[in-house]
Amino acid sequence: MNSVAPKLYADDVSLVMVVLDTNPFFWTTSSLPFSKFLSHVLSFLNSIMLLNQFNQVVVIATGYNSCDYIYDSSLATDHGSENGKMPALCSNLLQKLEEFVIRDQQLRKDGSGEGLPSSLVSGSLSMALCYIQKVFRSGPLHPQPRILCLQGSPDGPEQYVAIMNAIFSAQRLMVPIDSCYIGSNNSAFLQQASYITGGVYLKPQQLDGLFQYLSTVFATDLHSRRFLQLPKSVGVDFRASCFCHKKTIDMGYVCSVCLSIFCKHHKKCSTCGSVFGQAQADASGSSRKRKISET
Amino acid sequence: MPQVKIIAKNFMDMVASLPAMKLDKLYANAFICEAILRSLPPLAKKYVLQMLFIEGPVSATSMQEWVLADGVSKHQVAIDRLIQLRLFTETADRKRETTYRLNPVLQANLQKLLTCGEVLPREPMPPNVTARLPSLEDLEAFALEKWECFLLQLINSSQAEKPTNISSSMMKIFQRGLLSQREKEAPRLTESGFQFLLMDTNAQLWYIIREYISNSEERGVDPADLISFLLELSFHVTGEAYNMNTLTDVQSNTIKDLSDLGLVKLQQGRKESWFIPTKLATNLSVSLADSSSRKQGFVVVETNFRMYAYSTSKLHCEILRLFSRIEYQLPNLIVGAITKESLYTAFENGITAEQIISFIQQNAHPRVAERIPSVPENVTDQIRLWESDLNRIEMTPAHHYDEFPSKEVFEAACDFAREWNGLLWEDSKKKRLVVKAEIHMHMRDFLRGQK
């Protein structure tokens, strides 16, 4: 009667933050071409928008050197497309994506390490969380946020601390991180992210039917998840990376003061500066093996 | 207390009640597919999406495996709804197993929507033709003014300053059920009329639209056409101008009616004329779903039963007057008190305590809406108590029987009354009983037969 409300929310209104891997090093080796992958993802974005008028989609591109927002459905007001053929969502997103990839390439530093370089997932996760935080602060009425990582490139152990921090912030905000991993091996980071935040981790077997995986599993709003069977994680790789050489380790030394992890014995903790005593021969005293998930 | 309730949000039931042929015809329009999909319960939406690219039928047993034990009832509700709206067709295959298949027309439409993205129902007019369009704020103000004006006229024709162009016959249709007019008396709001006023805008809008649609056949308009046009309208962009000549005759007649309700604003250029949808129109498909709609509230209720309403609207004042005593009115503030007398008048008019409470809760001023509870508990409790005061005695017209010749006749009469569900009281010692008035005639016949 007073005014038509700007926000009207049913319980299935969702905000999906899609973190898109655009690492060129990965996509050149992938069995699924990037263009095909994109068309699956675009259909998925369309389906999210179709489900509810108030659903919101934000896409963050994760490059090799940088990450950036490339699409935000709440900002896309211009429905009219210029060429009349391609719908607004596609053309906006593709254009931004192209600009992003070019920029990402220019940032490239020489002397990359051996193996397949990883993407900057930690940065994208932080950006997604910032966006969600902004939405939370916008008022009492907001859509229910969740993050979906579409990742292909392998984990970068050097991002371990940043990613774990992002995961724990997401856990605190009660934002589930879903992950769909299209690379060859499983991603330990994403497995942990989904496990800790209560999201779904899935590694699709048939990449041709990616859309069906996306629509069946990842289009499920948080409200419906209470009633539906979703894929359960078979096992989670809880291995941590050491802080000193950024290597993934099974066993290591943990600082008893700040819980930093090291692969070798140090005299002094590099994070908090605590001085360690002389290590016992079989490393039992102040340092012992510890699983990071328990922190 | 009468239990009349206006079913206003139930527009989808109306769609579901359309004959199968018409319903299938509706799904040929992609916008309707979209609107209907959005109106479904979350689980049902999910199923449609999941089955969108599955060409063959899916068996009911395999669908049941999708849900957890907790969700079985929700699952059933979703499936029932899908079948009712003919989104799913149910078939039994050779092994007598139930299978479901998505409506192929709808499936094709939605598939296209997903792969090609959303398209607009019609292209907006270029800005060089439409010289100056109203700003979104102006448009919203326009829509609200029109709507309030319409509501005022609806409840009290003399109050409206600017009478709308809605024909009096149309107004009569809208008023049917909301107002009752006895001879030589001013029309009075009925219980449902009061309840109507306490509903939120979207619900009210749908009530009116529903009446409008159900009446369409008398005007020689196919309800299915009207429904599809209204749903299509909700997918237009607010504030853009659309050319009138893209509409059919029926549609342009409809749009004139809709402009009186504030759904669209009509403007005339040098050569062409166009319509600009307002928020009310684009929200049409939203209110299809029974989403918990909220809006900026304006009422503050204090523990001393005083009520402050920050509003300039005459309509708000009229609504508050339904259940409170308005004491004075400042330019932007209406001050009133909730009293026993004012509530008794409300109860007499058929408004329930729950409705009043939910109205003041839903319209709570943002400052008090943050508090829990937004309305002081002593006030809500007292409103409920006053209502239950009125319900202490229930009156039922009845007939009293006594002087039965024998115990057997008395027992038989009691059993007979029980069978008709009309026995109110019996006293087997003195052989007396009281039955409801409506079965008196049957009782008399029965007793005559006994003799």
TrEMBL record, chain A:
The protein's superkingdom reads Eukaryota
Protein location: Nucleus
Record keywords, A-Z: DNA damage, DNA repair, Metal-binding, Nucleus, Transcription, Transcription regulation, Zinc, Zinc-finger
Q: Does the keyword Ribonucleoprotein apply?
A: no
Q: Which Gene3D superfamilies match?
A: von Willebrand factor, type A domain
Report the main location listed first in the record. Answer: nucleus
Coiled-coil portions: none
Q: Name one Pfam family in it.
A: Tfb4
Does the keyword NADP feature in the UniProt annotation? no
Binding partners and assembly: Component of the 7-subunit TFIIH core complex composed of XPB, XPD, TFB1/GTF2H1, GTF2H2/P44, TFB4/GTF2H3, TFB2/GTF2H4 and TFB5/GTF2H5, which is active in NER. The core complex associates with the 3-subunit CDK-activating kinase (CAK) module composed of CYCH1/cyclin H1, CDKD and MAT1/At4g30820 to form the 10-subunit holoenzyme (holo-TFIIH) active in transcription.
Task performed by this protein: Component of the general transcription and DNA repair factor IIH (TFIIH) core complex, which is involved in general and transcription-coupled nucleotide excision repair (NER) of damaged DNA and, when complexed to CAK, in RNA transcription by RNA polymerase II. In NER, TFIIH acts by opening DNA around the lesion to allow the excision of the damaged oligonucleotide and its replacement by a new DNA fragment. In transcription, TFIIH has an essential role in transcription initiation.
Spell out the family assignment given in the record's similarity comment: Belongs to the TFB4 family.
Q: Could you identify this protein by its name? A: General transcription and DNA repair factor IIH subunit TFB4
Supply the source organism for this entry: Ziziphus jujuba (Chinese jujube)
Automatic annotation (TrEMBL), chain B:
Q: NCBIfam families this protein is in?
A: tfb2 (TIGR00625)
Q: Coiled-coil stretches, from where to where?
A: none
The Gene Ontology terms for molecular function here are: ATPase activator activity; double-stranded DNA binding
Keywords assigned by UniProt, alphabetized: DNA damage, DNA repair, Nucleus, Transcription, Transcription regulation
Family from the record: Belongs to the TFB2 family.
One GO biological process term is: nucleotide-excision repair
**Which compartment or compartments is the protein found in?**
Nucleus
Q: Name one GO cellular component term.
A: transcription factor TFIIH holo complex
Gene3D superfamilies in the record, alphabetically? 3.30.70.2610
Job description of the protein: Component of the general transcription and DNA repair factor IIH (TFIIH) core complex which is involved in general and transcription-coupled nucleotide excision repair (NER) of damaged DNA.
**InterPro entries found in the cross-reference section:** Tfb2_C (IPR040662), TFIIH_p52/Tfb2 (IPR004598)
| Superkingdom per UniProt | Eukaryota
Gene encoding the protein: LOC107423855
The UniProt record lists the keyword Transcription regulation:
yes
What is the name of the protein in this document?
A: RNA polymerase II transcription factor B subunit 2
Domain Transcription factor Tfb2 C-terminal, residue spans = 381-448
